[in-house]
Amino acid sequence: MTDFTLAPDASSIVSVTDRVRKVELKTPAAFVHFLGDTAAFVGAEEHVMLVDTEGAWTQLGVHDGGILCAVTDGKRLVTGGDDGKIVSVVAKGEVETLATDAKRRWIDNVAAHADGTVAWSAGKTAFVKTPKGEEKSFEVTSTVGGLAFAPKGLRLAIAHYNGVTLWFPNMAAKPEVLEWKGSHLGVTFSADNRFLVTSMHEPALHGWRLADAKHMRMTGYPARVRSMSWSAGGKFLATSGSDSAILWPFGSKDGPMGKQPEMLAPLQAKVTVVACHPKDDIFAAGYSDGTILMVRIQDGAEILVRRNAGHPVTALAWNAKGSLLAFASDEGDAGLLAL
Length: 339
Description:
Layout: E1 14-15, E2 20-24, E3 29-35, E4 38-43, E5 45-51, E6 57-72, E7 76-81, E8 85-90, E9 95-100, E10 109-112, E11 118-122, E12 125-129, E13 135-139, E14 146-149, E15 156-167, E16 176-189, E17 195-200, E18 205-209, E19 214-218, E20 228-230, E21 236-239, E22 245-249, E23 262-264, E24 271-276, E25 282-287, E26 292-296, E27 302-306, E28 313-318, E29 324-329, E30 333-338
Parallel strand pairs: 1-27
Antiparallel strand pairs: 2-30, 3-4, 4-5, 5-6, 6-7, 7-8, 8-9, 10-11, 11-12, 12-13, 14-15, 15-16, 16-17, 17-18, 18-19, 20-21, 21-22, 22-23, 24-25, 25-26, 26-27, 28-29, 29-30
């Protein structure tokens, strides 16, 4: 992946802080995603800033107010705002409004499928819009907490209070409901489509093996899990929510059932965001004190990307090739690291 040699312990940690290209954002960034090799820094209010590998930037107005959610399918950035709009952005800077909620409700969640289908939610209702412009909706029993498309087939997971609903928008079949008491927020499928995991309002995850809906309780966090990322090949699910990065094993047919997670890169600060490398068994972790580390899963060896700067890291992302890492903090500090 890189010509860096990872250090075997913290006393000899390798630093690449001098290789980071600083990006001056005008406002704090809540999300960052890549469109090819262009980093899209999504502000908390109104704007998206596109930054190329040379540091040239373009600021785009995308919403009339707060930006509440953002995802990418690799080609488009899709955002939802408190103006009731769902907006797409491409690397060339073209902005398109994909839909506007009829009641101008807040768009709480968005999801993007590889085929160009987009999903979003407002209140209790989830919506899907295909590349041909066909729009469908489905209402669940409580406010939608999170959305995720399955990697294969057009199936949408809708997280809500007391479980997750699995909806096939293009089929008349009754949606499947996976039940577990509590408020389910973020939701994610494993890349092989065998497992589904949610982050909860309480400091815990909950998972299901989709073949038989068998439960996986993933507890022990001191804080709520706000960031989840699958490692290359789906062998681990890396998560925030502790003073170490917590990695749950999913390499076997039973996933993490009966197994303890790996706890890597401990610091005297909470992990706020994680992002796994798309090709190698390495992940990046951002902390509440502003530190960013790259960590090798095999032995926990670390590279220092950013020293503690006092402001929590809010966003991390790799490009698809794994050659660029982008980050941002809640004070508007941001950067790009080329490997």
